[in-house]
Design goal:
It is a single chain. This protein is an alpha+beta fold. Helices cover about 15% and strands about 30% of the residues. The strands form five sheets. A seven-stranded antiparallel β-sheet has the order 3-2-6-5-4-1-7. The protein has a seven-stranded antiparallel β-sheet with strand order 17-16-20-19-18-15-21. Strand 11 and strand 12 form a beta hairpin. Helix 8 packs parallel to helix 9. The protein is elongated and about 95 Å long. The termini are far apart.
Length: about 475
């Protein structure tokens, strides 16, 4: 066993040395040795619409064509379980000794024994190899996601070089990596700003699961990378993720200069900035799979994650992240008072400069339990009125109980009314649900229906539902 490990280590070191001149192995700047130059890619025209479908077709093994090129990129487990046989000697070959070798697909054959061989010619050393299919006929195996272990599909790398080199992109995630060693795979994780403008500087091979390593550079010359999945050919996991659910898909990591970059540079400067509401306003948020309007109190802090133009309009949709609860909200605004819909009669909080101030604003302190309840859309005892509005929105009715305590009423879609009781200082003392058909809390004179947008009609106002009419006594 010790001898086997020694041989594996030696073969790994030899393959690492050979990889130094391999144009598919690229490194971020800052490593000890200058990374191999990439001269194969020129900037190409790309179409953001259906970019993946047009440029990166998925090939099951059933569709593989002779001449398709792959690179051996073994993971740790692959150093223990060999993949290939030498066609001349019929003996297994260590994956470590083939690290970064390029394999060209040569078709498959069924032997008299019933076994199936997937054949390859190695560009790197001029020898022939085969992978012995572990079970069934070729047709049984080729439609599965398993494929040939260790092989990263170079077709995706070559196409990415053709269409992405020197392209400006936006970062869609904050999680990237920086190389720490030139001759190995060492790296350290780095965190960068989301929606940062970067330029693609090099593209090489990543891993079998995420075969395209994209190195980008920010305006200060800092380089970092992410390994991404494009076509998922031979990735071994095509069925494991949807495009939106894969943290290593191109769309999760990068974005073309589309929506955010069609706005002027002075508007783009608000990206990643912290702002606070100077007035109470209504925003949209997702909860339990549904989008609903929520009244957000003044002095609520947000980080602006995205700015997206609204089609055929002078409005922009802000995607903002509440600084305490981390909940995501959406708000349509204009950046000039003259662009407010309705003019002087429109809602003033549609104007970014009216609604938002820069920075955190007045600090609001909430407990961890309260922040959790807000994120989950629940009301708990001791919440303030502002916190209740953040959790469940604006009540459809405000009234008082027989003792004079203020009560907010919420109509729920499942046929119940939520009554939220406050003490004289404005803190929740009880949140009680009842059937809509039950007798509502009797309110003395002075009961009022809540208004939105500081007295201005909300864009989302609608006729009361039958449930709301029952609850309000209409």
């Amino acid at each position: 066993m010790r001898r086997w490990l020694l041989l594996a280590a030696v073969s790994f070191a030899m393959s690492s040395a050979m990889a130094q001149d391999n144009p598919y192995i690229v490194k971020t700047n800052g490593v000890k040795k200058e990374a191999a130059a990439n001269t194969s890619g020129a900037a190409g025209e790309t179409e953001p619409t259906d970019f993946m479908g047009k440029n990166f077709r998925y090939y099951s093994m059933c569709d593989w064509k002779e001449g398709m090129r792959f690179m051996v990129v073994p993971e740790k487990i692959d150093l223990l379980v060999n993949t290939f046989y030498d066609a001349a000697t019929r003996k297994q070959v260590s994956n470590g000794s083939l690290r970064h070798f390029i394999m060209v697909y040569q078709g498959h054959e069924m032997l008299l024994s019933g076994r199936v061989h997937i054949n390859f010619f190695c560009e790197t050393n001029g020898r022939s190899y085969y992978f012995e299919q572990p079970y069934g006929t070729f047709e049984d195996y080729c439609y599965s996601k398993h494929g040939v272990p260790t092989l990263a599909y170079l077709g995706d790398v070559d196409k990415a070089r053709e269409v992405l080199m020197n392209q400006p992109l936006l970062t869609r995630t904050q999680n990237f990596r920086v190389d720490t060693e030139y001759d190995g795979d060492g790296y350290r994780d780095v965190v960068v700003d989301k929606n940062m403008l970067v330029v693609v500087k090099a593209i090489g091979v990543g891993t079998r699961a995420c075969p395209v390593k994209i190195i980008v550079e920010d305006e200060y010359g800092n380089q970092f990378y992410q390994n991404v999945a494009l076509s998922y050919t031979n990735s071994g996991r095509r069925e494991d993720f949807s495009i939106d659910g894969d943290p290593n898909s191109f769309a999760t990591c990068f974005e073309f200069l589309g929506a955010n970059m069609t706005v002027s540079s002075n508007i783009r400067e608000y990206l990643n900035k912290t702002v606070h509401t100077k007035y109470a306003t209504t925003m949209s948020s997702k909860g339990s799979g549904k989008v609903r309007d929520i009244k957000v109190p003044r002095f609520t802090g947000f980080i602006i994650d995205e700015i997206t133009p609204v089609r055929n309009s002078k409005y922009y949709t802000l995607t903002v992240r509440e600084t305490e609860s981390r909940r995501i909200y959406y708000k349509d605004v204009v950046f000039s008072e003259d662009d407010i819909e309705g003019g002087a009669n429109g809602a003033p909080d549609d104007f970014f400069g009216y609604l938002f101030g820069m920075g955190e604003g007045e600090a609001r302190s909430t407990s961890k339990e309260t922040r959790t309840a807000i994120r989950e859309g629940r009301v708990i005892v001791s919440m303030t009125k502002d916190e209740v509005e953040l959790a469940v929105g604006e009540p459809f009715k405000q009234t008082h109980d027989a003792e004079g305590n203020e009560v907010w009423q919420y109509a729920r879609s499942n046929g119940v009314i939520l009554d939220v009781f406050f003490d004289e200082k404005g803190y929740v003392t009880l949140a009680k649900a009842r059937k809509a058909t039950d007798h509502p809390v009797k309110a003395p004179k002075g009961t009022r229906t809540a208004k939105s947008r500081g007295g201005h009609a909300s864009k989302s106002n609608k006729t009361a539902t039958p449930l709301e009419q029952v609850a309000s006594g209409e």
